[in-house]
Specification:
- By secondary structure, the protein is of the alpha+beta class.
- It has one domain.
- Helix content is 16%, strand content 41%.
- The chain has 1 helix and 4 strands.
- A two-stranded antiparallel sheet has the order 1-2. Strands 3-4 form a two-stranded antiparallel ribbon.
C-alpha cells in the first residue's frame, strides 16, 4: 500500500516505482506503541460472496449480522 511515484526522464522514458510513503496503522498496548504495515494486505472483518454483492437485502443482512 505504497503511493506510486511516476517518473519521466528527459529522453521521454517513463516508469513508475513505489515511493517511501506507505499506509500503516498504530496500535498501543500496555503503553507500548507498535507500527504495522499494510503492505502485505490484511484480513477483512466481513467477506461478501460475489453472488451477493449486488443484492441490497443480503448486504443489509451481512452488515446487521456484523454489528450485533
Amino acid at each position: 500500500m505504497c503511493t506510486i511515484l511516476p517518473l519521466v526522464l528527459t529522453d521521454g522514458t517513463a516508469f513508475a516505482i513505489s515511493s517511501n510513503n506507505t499506509l500503516r496503522y498504530v496500535k498501543k498496548v500496555n503503553n507500548q506503541i507498535t507500527y504495522y504495515s499494510t503492505e502485505s494486505g490484511f484480513v477483512p472483518d466481513l467477506e461478501v460472496p460475489y453472488s451477493d454483492f449486488y443484492s441490497d437485502e443480503k448486504l443489509v443482512g451481512y452488515i446487521d449480522e456484523a454489528y450485533q
